[in-house]
Amino acid sequence: MPDSLKIDPAKIRSFIRRQGRATAGQKQALETHWQSYCLPISADFDAEQVFGRSAPLIVEIGFGNGSSLADMAAANPELNYLGIEVHRPGVGHLLMLLAERNISNVRIYHHDAIEILEQKIPDHSISGVHLFFPDPWQKRRHHKRRIVRPSFVELLNQKLRVGGYFHAATDWAHYAKDMLGILSAGQGLQNSSPSRDYCPRPDYRPLTKFENRGLKLGHGVWDLIFRKI
């Protein structure tokens, strides 16, 4: 682990590093395209220098295999996207997509998102934070591992611009209710839902194959969008 990040050994993490195997294509993408898209954690993040332009910055926490992030970046070339993911095969898959589609407005951190936000991203610099289908940690004894907690709301207030937003989506009703309560109780963020609960899925969030299959089976999906005031 690089010395440039201060690691708190007592901190409760919202993820477990899975040892999934990367495919041959993902391995090749990691070797070939890492330098083009992945950022070192040895230096502070300067969006204008990294992207070579000034544009609104959208951060996605835990982008999984990166398909949704690639779709959003391709559909919104006027925005800068920063994806943060701890699982190496997912990073490799996103690198494949970015290279195949010649997408230039995405950069990646392969690291813990909370540590990157806390220690690398300047305050009041983010226009949007996405958290799509995070691990719900279903068992009660594991709820403390959920990423959306009061300290996370404080971090959002610190990093978001005024008018910037936080968008979470989950297919676990209990986690949706839990996030709604925590975000509503926090200071500085306002619910974008007129009914003060959940929002319809915005057009910018792609509908994944997994999500579409669940909806056809009657499974629910809840979107929460809060803006910094």
Automatic annotation (TrEMBL):
Binding site for substrate: K139, D171, T208, K209, F210, E211
SUPFAM superfamilies: S-adenosyl-L-methionine-dependent methyltransferases
GO CC annotations on file: tRNA methyltransferase complex
Binding site for S-adenosyl-L-methionine: E60, E85, D112, D135
Catalytic activity from the UniProt record: guanosine(46) in tRNA + S-adenosyl-L-methionine = N(7)-methylguanosine(46) in tRNA + S-adenosyl-L-homocysteine
Molecular function as annotated in GO: tRNA (guanine(46)-N7)-methyltransferase activity
Similarity comment: family membership: Belongs to the class I-like SAM-binding methyltransferase superfamily. TrmB family.
NCBIfam families in the cross-refs: tRNA (guanosine(46)-N7)-methyltransferase TrmB
Protein's UniProt name: tRNA (guanine-N(7)-)-methyltransferase
Lineage: Bacteria, Pseudomonadati, Pseudomonadota, Gammaproteobacteria, Methylococcales
